[in-house]
Design goal:
Mean pLDDT: 84
Strand order of the largest sheet: 1-2
Helix content: over 70%
Order of helices and strands: EEHHHHHHHHHHHHHHHHEEHH
């Protein structure tokens, strides 16, 4: 059959036949596989490496939580705002991904060498003198420095990669693509937790090197084979011409233009209560990921499970999600994102609350992991779709970045410091609680992570109810974004 006779699918100015659409999905999903495996190392492996380097729970919270969120706070709006407004022959997203990928890969290689670099520096007397005044061991400080420089570039990958979907995937196939997207993400998480988690702790240099090679090859290939279309000019793009087509007065100086951009950014992003409640709903999902950095210490310290056993227990939910992801995608098409997200948040909130009381051994930990892990994938799929449906399409990166700004502030200044302080405060303590029918429950400090996660998801659920209430009051659809919101 000739190409002219084939059914064509459109995304903006892009046109695909079935084979081209399939190849687009393949390259984007390769990027997803690479991204998701690499994205597991910071919250899972890094806390253990930091512990081995002599870090306290407060140090871990500051590096894995506060530092990363501060970097996101500063950099995500810069990457997002500018990529929305970039117009080049390579598109508006690909140039940024192409630029940051080599640096991300290089810093992945260097990160596990932080203790070696610190030990090398300690040979100098000035460093030995300085180390006496440091708030943490030199190796921990070097890890913090490595993570900070890494996120200087990784912030570009972690934000812009997801914006690419809306630009190149046909709307008619977005639901199916996102279902496949989350299936691949779950597969990557399974691979990491089942095989790479333990290896990453035992052989961090070798595993991080392998991840760097895969990251470089995967994203560079995606940048080469995925093509963006043409974008409409930004509103105000002809502001430099007067009504007759002639040039107006000279453009304002750069500081003035930068100040105006900042004012416009915050006015557009933070002046609407609908956006605020959407931000809070989504940011709490990401706050749960930061709090979950401490989850690994619960089975390790209080249930006596090994790293390998923990990794396997955390891997099975991803495998189950691969089976149920497509039915969930069909349910999303039928119920729409609000209803599915509401039920998922209810189940997740209650599941973590019950986990606090019912987890007694490796079997009950596995059961809890299966329920909360599968719900986590469903929530992650829904919260991404929630942002796409509420935020305007032309400024998608800008509004997603505004969500990250608020998310970073809350996690960096509230969630992460609280977790670090809380677990350091409870360190070495054990309490006993007698429950009807359940008997005696021994409560160590890290068991409380279940209650913290339950509260976080309940806040996300309350925010979702507020989003729905505002949209109903304004007569907006809770299905796909209305035309008014998309402008």
């Amino acid at each position: 059959m000739s190409q002219a006779a084939q059914k064509l699918f459109r995304a903006g100015t892009l046109t695909y036949n079935r084979r081209q659409l399939a190849m687009l999905f393949i390259w984007l999903l390769i990027g997803d596989l690479v991204f998701m495996v690499g994205n597991q190392f910071e919250p899972r492996v890094l806390p253990i490496l930091l512990k081995q380097a002599g870090a306290s729970d407060a140090h871990i919270a500051w590096i894995v939580g506060t530092l990363i969120q501060v970097m996101q706070l500063v950099l995500n709006p810069i990457y997002s705002y500018n990529s929305d407004r970039t117009r080049s022959r390579w598109g508006r997203r690909i140039p940024y991904l192409f630029f940051v990928t080599p640096f991300v890969s290089l810093l992945l290689v260097l990160t596990p060498y932080a203790p070696d670099i610190a030990a090398w520096l300690m040979r100098y007397s000035w460093m030995q003198t300085l180390a006496q005044h440091l708030p943490c061991p030199p190796a921990v400080l070097m890890y913090g420095l490595m993570v900070g420089v890494f996120y200087l570039f990784y912030a570009g990958t972690s934000s812009i990669y997801f914006y690419l979907f809306r630009d190149v995937v046909p709307e008619s196939h977005m639901g199916r693509f996102l279902a496949l997207f989350r299936i691949v993400g779950a597969l990557a998480t399974f691979i990491f937790n089942y095989w790479l988690f333990g290896l990453g702790v035992k052989f961090p240099k070798e595993v991080f090197l392998g991840m760097a090679v895969v990251n470089f090859a995967g994203f560079m290939a995606m940048c080469w084979f995925v093509r963006e279309g043409e974008y409409p000019p930004m509103p105000g793009g002809n502001a430099g011409k007067n009504a007759t087509g002639g040039a107006t007065s000279a453009r304002p100086p750069l500081p003035v233009r930068a100040a105006r951009s900042v004012v416009t950014y915050f006015r557009e992003c933070f002046s609407d209560s609908l956006n605020w409640w959407t931000y809070i709903c989504r940011l709490m999902v990401y706050a749960s990921m930061t709090a979950s950095s401490f989850l690994v210490f619960f089975p390790m310290n209080e249930l006596g499970m090994s790293i390998g056993e923990i990794g396997r227990a955390l891997s099975w939910p991803s495998l189950v999600w691969i089976v149920v992801a497509f039915p969930v995608g069909l349910l999303l098409d039928k119920w729409k994102v609000f209803r599915v997200l509401r039920w998922s948040l209810w189940i997740q909130s209650v599941a973590y609350l019950l986990s606090f009381f019912f987890i007694r051994d490796d079997t009950t930990f596995l059961i809890s992991s299966l329920i909360t892990g599968v719900m986590y994938w469903a929530i992650m799929l829904c919260q991404f779709m929630l942002g796409q449906e509420v935020f305007p399409a032309l400024y998608l990166g800008q509004f997603f970045s505004a969500n990250v700004v608020l998310q970073s502030v809350v996690i960096a200044l509230v969630i992460s410091p609280f977790c670090g302080w809380f677990f350091d405060w409870l360190k070495g303590t054990t309490q006993t609680l007698t429950l009807p029918l359940l008997g005696t429950l021994e409560i160590g400090p890290y068991r409380y992570i279940m209650l913290i996660l339950s509260v976080i998801f309940f806040i996300s659920l309350f925010s979702l109810y507020r989003v729905e209430a505002i949209m109903r009051k304004r007569g907006l659809s809770t299905g796909p974004a209305s035309q008014e919101r998309a402008k």
